[in-house]
Specification:
This protein has two domains: 281 residues, Aldehyde Dehydrogenase, Chain A, domain 1; 189 residues, 3-Layer(aba) Sandwich (Aldehyde Dehydrogenase, Chain A, domain 2), CATH 3.40.309. 38% of the residues lie in helices and 22% in strands. It is α/β, with parallel strands linked by helices. It starts with 10 loop residues before the first strand and ends with a strand. The strands form six sheets. Strands 16-17-18-15-14-19-20 form a seven-stranded mixed β-sheet, with helices on both faces. It has a six-stranded mixed β-sheet with strand order 11-10-9-12-13-21, with helices on both faces.
């Protein structure tokens, strides 16, 4: 499959252009191929920005910041609403591109990538109060002056220029979740998409341009070279870095950002624990845990990849999970009925397979999967279940980011909670039990940014973020408006 130009001035037969300062610009360092994970064919040519172009994007965002931050919130919201409509109007070609770039199934790409992106722009198209009153305070006379009553107001102000460094597993919803609230709060943005699938992000920029976003307010620069992202993060024009990706990369970004006191929002790795207690509905538990095999082929930080099963249900749960994994249709993500598509690249497939082999060496029992599917082309990994694991195995401690689930038995609730928290991560955990009081009791003891009770679903207004090495800060819903703003206090005598 090869891509064709979306509209004049954005793409050319020679490849995609950068979006810098409102102009579609040829990249200084040429182009590189974007590969379809299912067919191994070239989807299109992505631009390789130079460091100078990355810095120019940041400078353009800085220049546009003043006017955009002073634009009435209602006008900013109208731009976001038009962007949502533009995305919806081209949902079919955008979905096809997302499938080609990521290997996600058509249904997932349509609903969870393009659909969620449109929903996020629409969500932040409503104006919410950016200020709130603080109760008056009576001050006694003293060194600071005479006695008096002082009023106060807290006001959310834009942070400034936000660098949005996004992940490969969802090139629509992930950047939309950063760009939309950042723009709503009056910030300008420079988006550095993942090198594996940046073309979708340029389509998002086209939608924003069509929606009337002013020049320089949104900029997109891409590249395989780490230098592009480094130049953006290091830029003195950038006030905040919002990053989604691995903990290792997040730590390096945090070191650089910390030197100039840039604000940070970090959505990092996860090794989510699913505690299956002895009174759980095993059908519901299997369906929830099984999403690790199918949803983005396990390439999602919120996946319940580490199953902790109380010993009385352990055997039945392993048997049912193995049967579930074995029923899933692996294949062309465009074909009806396909549940499990490929992982993002040959290198990542090899990495996931190496973890499965490591699990075998560590003593885990492969009860499902474990062998490469017999596909002629594509980067496929069979849904794999590793049983009889222990908490100290690397496969139980490290983020594999693929369709691999490990199962660890435990005896009582106390041991289960201890196992769940025995990890460097703390993004989202899950509790499966028929006892509601027990579920909430266990949930409150878990050191995780979120806990799902008898579900892996999410409330899209609930705060999202992690404890420990799973990240810093919270976003989603109104929490994102806080994340992309600074709070200013204004005080006056009554």
């Amino acid at each position: 499959m090869t891509s064709s130009p979306a509209r004049p001035g954005t793409s050319s037969p020679a490849g995609q252009r950068l979006f810098v300062g409102g102009d579609w610009t040829e990249p200084d360092d040429g182009h590189y191929p974007v590969t379809d994970p299912a067919t191994e064919e070239t989807v299109g040519l992505a631009p390789e920005a130079s460091r100078a172009q990355a810095r120019a994007a940041c400078a353009a965002a800085r220049e546009a910041l003043g006017p955009w931050s002073r634009t009435p919130p209602e006008e900013r919201a109208a731009v976001l609403a038009r962007a949502a409509a533009a995305i919806r109007s081209r949902a079919r070609p955008y979905t096809e591109l997302a499938v080609a770039e990521t290997g996600a199934t058509t249904g997932t790409a349509r609903a969870m990538q393009v659909g969620v992106a449109a929903a996020r722009f629409q969500r932040y198209a409503r104006v919410e109060s950016a200020e709130w009153a603080i109760p008056p305070q009576v001050n006694e006379a003293g060194p600071m002056g005479r006695a008096g009553v002082f009023g106060a107001l807290a006001v959310r102000q834009p942070v400034g220029v936000v660098a949005c460094v996004t992940s490969y597993n969802n090139p629509w919803a992930n950047p939309a979740g950063k760009v939309a609230p950042a723009l709503a709060m009056g910030n300008t943005v420079v988006v550095k998409p993942a090198p594996q699938d940046p073309l979708s992000v340029y389509r998002m920029a086209e939608a924003l341009e069509a929606a009337g976003v002013p020049r320089g307010v949104v900029n997109v620069v891409s590249g395989r070279s780490p230098g592009v992202g480094e130049a953006v993060v290091e830029s003195p024009d950038v006030d905040m870095v919002s990053f989604t990706g691995s903990t290792a990369v997040g730590q390096r970004i945090a070191e650089v950002a910390g030197r100039s006191m840039k604000r940070q929002l970090m959505e990092l790795g996860g090794k989510g624990a699913a505690l299956v207690l002895d009174d759980a509905d095993l059908g519901a538990a299997v369906a929830g845990i099984g999403t690790t095999f199918s949803f983005y082929s396990g390439q999602i930080c919120t996946a319940p990849t580490r199953v902790l099963a109380q010993r009385s249900v352990y055997g039945r749960l392993v048997e049912q999970l193995a049967a579930y994994a074995g029923r899933l249709k692996i294949g062309d993500p465009r074909a009806p009925g396909t549940v499990v598509g490929p992982v993002i690249s040959r290198e990542h497939r090899d990495r996931v397979e190496s973890y499965v082999e490591l699990g075998r060496k560590e003593g885990a029992v492969v009860v499902a999967g474990g062998e490469r599917p017999p596909m002629e082309r594509g980067f496929y990994v069979a849904p794999t279940l590793l049983a009889d694991c222990t908490g100290d195995m690397r496969v139980a401690r490290e983020e594999i980011f693929g369709p691999v689930v490990v199962v660890i038995p435990f005896d009582d609730e106390e041991e289960g909670v201890a196992l769940a928290d025995d990890t460097d991560y703390g993004l989202i955990d899950y509790v499966f039990t028929a006892d509601v009081a027990r579920a909430f009791r266990v949930a409150r003891r878990l050191r995780a940014g979120g806990v799902g009770i008898n579900t892996v679903g999410r409330n899209m207004e609930a705060p999202f973020g992690g404890f420990k090495r799973s990240g810093v800060g919270r976003d989603v819903g109104s929490y994102a408006l806080h994340a992309y703003s600074e709070v200013q206090a204004i005080v006056w005598p009554g």
